[in-house]
Design a protein that fits this description.
The chain folds into two domains: 203 residues, Glucose Permease (Domain IIA); 158 residues, no CATH class. The chain has eleven helices and 22 strands. The strands form six sheets. Strands 1, 9, 10, 12, 13, 14, 15, 17, 18 and 22 form a ten-stranded mixed sheet that branches. A three-stranded mixed sheet has the order 4-8-7, with no helix packed on it. Strands 19-20-21 form a three-stranded antiparallel sheet. A hairpin with a 6-residue loop joins β19 and β20. 53% of the residues are buried.
Length: 500
């Protein structure tokens, strides 16, 4: 039987190194948390493919993508599912599902079976471009922005709110800042969404429901509180942004169950906002109205969003940094997770997972050290994560950045430490996310954009080994010359062993 080593579900480019055999980042959302907002699979997602295309002045809505002839999603059957239930959920018919999937008997449904579902949208979303793409990511446009300072004099509930996150009390400003950094989503966008939906910035006493679920994401009871609501919002924004860049998302669904297709005239940042506002909108008309209101709210709070534009986020002459394996020379670690989301489930497949040779460790902190993959300075060290900037400007949103995740508190490298390749960062653990075992998760981003580990232009080459994707998250290879290693929840030197 397979050995459960765990997975990480989920950048400057942030290179996220999560110490996991399997896990998710601290604020990552497990798959299926947004079942009513499917990712439309039109090909393997490669969100780094193409530079952001938003204008830097008053935008003119010209087509930036060509709508597909048909949109379809993949759905994995869960315990208790029936074809009737699935058809009702996605507003289709049992007969249509059987036809698409070549089924002759509706009762022949197995847990884990993958169904193709074709979706039809009779409605189209608004075509107004709301933001430059750079505004939706935590990139160079936020170098001089401070959430606490920007909200200090506002009269709303936001300024007095405190919530316990990660074992300590955090202010609303600290929560928004942390979510922005972790997901790499623009904090001005998050604040505008929060004001639009919950009124937190201007209303000192919002209704109880708005205090508990300020983004109106109420599908799960445990989604209450600012941290969860902002995490869900950030994940939704990324679903739109990377779904647009990767041409994998065309439809969103409102609370009445109807689908709407994105206008081909918008850009990635606008798709992110529209995607975030679909859950919680009663119907298509309400969604259209809220999208327009977002523009008004944002401009009242922060002015013209296009004055913050930074283009291009990914310069044509960009080169990947030279990196080495994140463990000591002479040691063999094991490749357990191929390309998958850097943080959460909706970003580029920016991450790779590795585990030490300590078998059956579970969530006991490893005695081995994760080490730096490249020279750079530690900007963040908290909650199981370490962000390392590979440039010297001291800001997380510019240049290439490395994030080492699931790093145990004890002996974790301190903020301000100047690392060189091979220096100790900390011990793999289960801290900082949902993890089934101690392991390392590594990902990257540049100027706030998550970069796929297998991106053909900027692959995450480690000590000469190049990652490849098998088309599904966590499935992939590492190749060096004629040597190939395949991601596996196992300790097999010739299958997934990598010696530094």
């Amino acid at each position: 039987m397979p050995i459960k080593l765990g997975k990480t579900v989920g950048l400057s480019v942030v290179i996220v190194i999560l110490l996991l055999a399997g896990c998710r980042a601290a604020s990552e959302l497990p798959p299926g948390e947004w079942p009513a907002q499917p990712t439309i699979t039109l090909g393997t997602m490669d969100p780094g493919a193409g530079e952001p295309s938003a204008p830097v002045a008053t935008p003119s809505p010209t087509p930036t993508r060509t709508p597909p002839d048909a949109t379809a999603i993949s759905y994995t059957v869960r315990p208790g599912d029936t074809l009737t239930r699935i058809a009702a959920y996605y507003n289709t018919t049992v007969q249509e599902l059987m036809r698409i999937n070549g089924m002759s008997n509706a009762d022949h449904l197995a847990v884990g079976q993958v169904l193709q579902i074709t979706l039809v949208a009779d409605l189209v979303g608004p075509e107004a471009v709301l933001l430059p793409d750079s505004e939706a990511v935590y990139g160079p446009g936020y170098a001089d922005f401070d959430v606490a300072e920007a909200t200090r004099n506002l009269p709303g509930f936001f300024t007095t709110y405190v919530e316990t996150v990660g074992g300590r009390e955090r202010t609303a400003a600290e929560i928004v800042q942390q979510v922005a950094e972790n997901y790499s989503v623009g904090p001005r966008v998050l604040l505008a969404l929060l004001e639009l939906r919950g009124g937190w910035l201007t209303d000192a006493d919002p209704p109880p429901e708005a205090q508990q679920f300020p983004m109106r994401y109420t599908a799960q009871a445990h989604w209450d509180g600012l941290y969860w609501q902002m995490s869900l919002a950030a994940s939704a924004v990324n679903a739109g942004v990377y779904g647009w860049w990767g041409d994998t998302l065309w439809l969103v669904q409102t609370e009445d169950g109807n689908y709407a297709q994105f206008s081909p005239r918008i850009n990635a940042a606008t798709a992110g906002v529209q995607r975030a506002l679909a859950p919680g909108s009663a119907d298509h008309a309400a969604w259209i109205a809220e999208v327009a209101q977002f523009d008004e709210v944002y401009r009242v709070l922060f002015g013209d969003p296009f004055r913050y534009a930074v283009e291009p986020l990914l310069p044509p002459d960009l080169e990947s940094p030279e990196m080495v394996f994140p463990w000591p020379r002479g040691a063999m670690w094991y490749y357990t997770g191929g390309p998958h989301a850097g943080w959460g489930v909706n970003e580029a497949w920016a991450a790779l997972d590795f585990v030490t040779g300590e078998r059956y460790l579970g969530c006991v902190t490893s005695r081995q050290w994760a080490t730096a993959v490249a020279p750079g300075t530690v900007l963040v060290s908290r909650d199981g994560i370490v962000f390392q900037a590979l440039d010297d400007d001291g800001f997380l949103g510019t240049g290439w950045v490395v994030l080492y995740m699931h790093i145990a508190t004890e002996n974790r490298v301190a903020v301000g430490t100047r690392l060189v390749s091979g220096m100790r960062v900390g011990h793999p653990s289960c801290e900082g996310g949902v993890s089934t075992a101690s392991h390392l998760h590594l990902a990257r981003r540049y100027n706030g954009v998550w970069i796929a580990a297998h991106d053909p232009r900027w692959p995450m080459v480690l000590s000469g080994w190049t990652p490849g994707s098998a088309g599904r998250p966590y499935h992939g290879t590492m190749t060096k010359g004629d040597q190939v290693r395949t991601a596996c929840e196992c300790w097999e030197a010739r299958v997934n062993g990598l010696r530094h």
